[in-house]
Amino acid sequence: MHLLTASVLLITTGLSNGDKTTILRLPSPQTTKSYVKLQAATPAMTALTACLRAKTAFTGSGNSHFLSYAAGGMDNAFLFAYNRNGAIYSYVFNSNKDTSVFKVDDGAWHHWCFSWNNRGGKWTVYKDGMPAAAGTGFQTDKTIPANGVWIVGQDQDRLGGGFDATQAYVGDITSINVWNTDNVNFAAVANCGDNFGGNVISWYDVSKEIHEVSTYRKDLCKLK
Ligand SMILES: [Ca+2]
């Protein structure tokens, strides 16, 4: 069901508070063998929001990747990751954005979003539903190409592959949702009930091709 309220794009999923969600657990030590491919029909995007919940105490020697999107001959069309300092960083259209949002690797569950709009190049990082860092002039007027490949837990250096073990994510991750807009109700999306899915990727509905990753199911309101 598609629900438009006050020009904020939300898609209700079949989930409600108390329901269990699939949680991925990417193993230690880092390996290129563990990843999940998400089967999504992706439009060309002049704006984007990616959100997820992650719990990790892992600090890598390189950048640890939650999610990568390769498309149109561009392996870093979009990346959502954190660096060796435990700070959120992203790529949009092959250009990186380091942020001052630290302690991703504090061992606790957090809800993270990165949003971007090519109008003015506005970007924002949200932590647990609240804005934590923002800026402008990042990849203004660029368009992220359509019909690419979404990979959880690895950085693609070619379409669907070219992984580097030192760039793998280690830890738990769930609630990966992607919208082709930055007009999202972030507080609602961060709510533990996880009622709202993205219109590009909806975690509840998206087909997950799982490679050497363990899974468990849990009520998101009871995550520890
Ligand atoms: Ca790459």
TrEMBL record:
One GO MF term: metal ion binding
SUPFAM superfamilies: Concanavalin A-like lectins/glucanases (SSF49899)
The protein's required cofactors: Ca(2+)
Alphabetic keyword roster: Calcium, Disulfide bond, Glycoprotein, Metal-binding, Signal
Subcellular location: Secreted
Presence of keyword Transferase: no
Keyword match Calcium: yes
Gene3D superfamilies: 2.60.120.200
Record's GO cellular component terms: extracellular region
InterPro entries tied to this protein: ConA-like_dom_sf, Neuronal_Pentraxin_Related, PTX_dom
Subcellular location, principal: secreted
Signal peptide limits: 1-18
Cofactor comment text: Binds 2 calcium ions per subunit.
Pentraxin (PTX) domain ranges (all copies): 21-222
Similarity remark: Belongs to the pentraxin family.
Subunit structure: Homopentamer. Pentaxin (or pentraxin) have a discoid arrangement of 5 non-covalently bound subunits.
Name recorded for this polypeptide: Pentraxin family member
